């Protein structure tokens, strides 16, 4: 059996990146159909009576990377599914003062659903230049496609309606459950920020992401974030000498802060 390099040189399909799904780009106005048609291989077909097409499409969450980290050169970072999985685990740990007031089962589901549209839309970040209304339009169209077009029989359609309702609740951000999950979304990002920095042993400053801690709304989750930021400050206190990296300040510029304010305004 030849090496992978031999297979590449022989013209055979390169299998080395099957675990990575690049964002599909289309010309003109963004539409679900254009993206689905551009997916390599046989795209899942709409209108069937089996949920398998939906199951296949969800796989893209496992292979689509979170773009914010890739801007810093972290090419093999977390996927969207990775992010949502840890969020769901974190949601189980609501302090008693909060747990008695919310539906934790719904919160766990919301964590696993809230970024589902990114399997076609991609992980759009504040610096990508996509207006917020356009981002919302793309995500809403994708959720309609996933929960209506791919789920044909009545039993699956009922599950689809539940998924869409939970996604809408998260987007509206009016219920206590949705506010909790929005905060967990930010908390998971903060955890990953610090974990990448520590793994890089101070050679990588991801401090601009620390901004999201200021957008958290619940006292219980703010306490988690405060503890993490203090932990990060202690870490960077020992790394100030590395290539002039400031770490604690995080390199947050006025321009970036303005973009982030606009992006997180719904929270």
UniProtKB/TrEMBL annotation:
Reactions performed catalytically: a 2'-deoxyribonucleoside 5'-phosphate + H2O = a 2'-deoxyribonucleoside + phosphate
Matches recorded under InterPro entries: HD/PDEase_dom, HD_domain, YfbR/HDDC2
Domain HD/PDEase: 76-199
Entry-linked Pfam families: HD_3
Highest taxon of the lineage: Eukaryota
Signal sequence annotation: none
GO molecular function, one term: metal ion binding
Alphabetic keyword roster: Cobalt, Hydrolase, Magnesium, Metal-binding
EC number: 3.1.3.89
Enzyme kind, highest EC tier: hydrolase
Record Gene3D superfamilies: Hypothetical protein af1432
Stretches assigned to coiled coil: none
GO biological process terms held by the UniProt record: deoxyribonucleoside monophosphate catabolic process
SMART domains, alphabetized: HDc
Cofactor(s) needed for function: Mg(2+); Mn(2+); Co(2+)
A single GO cellular-component term on record: cytoplasm
Family: Belongs to the HDDC2 family.
Function according to Swiss-Prot or TrEMBL: Catalyzes the dephosphorylation of the nucleoside 5'-monophosphates deoxyadenosine monophosphate (dAMP), deoxycytidine monophosphate (dCMP), deoxyguanosine monophosphate (dGMP) and deoxythymidine monophosphate (dTMP).
Subunit description: Homodimer.
Name under which the protein is recorded: 5'-deoxynucleotidase
């Amino acid at each position: 059996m030849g090496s992978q390099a031999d297979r590449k040189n022989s013209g055979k399909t390169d299998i080395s990146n099957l675990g990575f799904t690049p964002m599909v780009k289309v010309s003109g106005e963004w539409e679900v159909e254009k993206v689905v048609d551009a997916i390599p291989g046989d795209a899942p077909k709409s209108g069937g009576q089996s949920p398998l097409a939906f199951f296949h499409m969800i796989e893209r969450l496992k292979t689509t990377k979170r773009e914010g980290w890739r801007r810093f050169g972290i090419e093999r970072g977390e996927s969207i599914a990775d992010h949502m999985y840890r969020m769901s685990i974190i949601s189980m740990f609501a302090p008693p003062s909060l747990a008695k007031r919310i539906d934790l089962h719904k919160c766990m589901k919301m964590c696993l659903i809230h970024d589902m549209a990114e399997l076609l839309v991609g992980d759009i970040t504040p610096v990508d230049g996509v207006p917020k209304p356009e981002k919302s339009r793309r995500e809403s169209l994708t959720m309609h496609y996933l929960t209506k077009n791919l789920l044909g029989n009545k039993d699956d359609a009922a599950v689809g309606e539940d998924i869409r309702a939970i996604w809408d609740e998260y987007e509206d951000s009016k219920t206590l459950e949705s506010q909790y999950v929005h905060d967990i979304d930010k908390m998971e990002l903060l955890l990953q920020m610090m974990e990448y920095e520590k793994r890089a042993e101070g050679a990588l400053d991801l401090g601009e992401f620390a901004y999201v801690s200021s957008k958290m709304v619940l006292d219980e989750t703010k306490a988690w974030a405060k503890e993490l930021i203090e932990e990060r400050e202690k870490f960077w206190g020992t790394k100030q000498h590395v290539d002039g990296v400031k770490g604690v300040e995080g390199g947050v510029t006025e321009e970036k802060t303005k973009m982030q304010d606009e992006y997180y305004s719904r929270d």
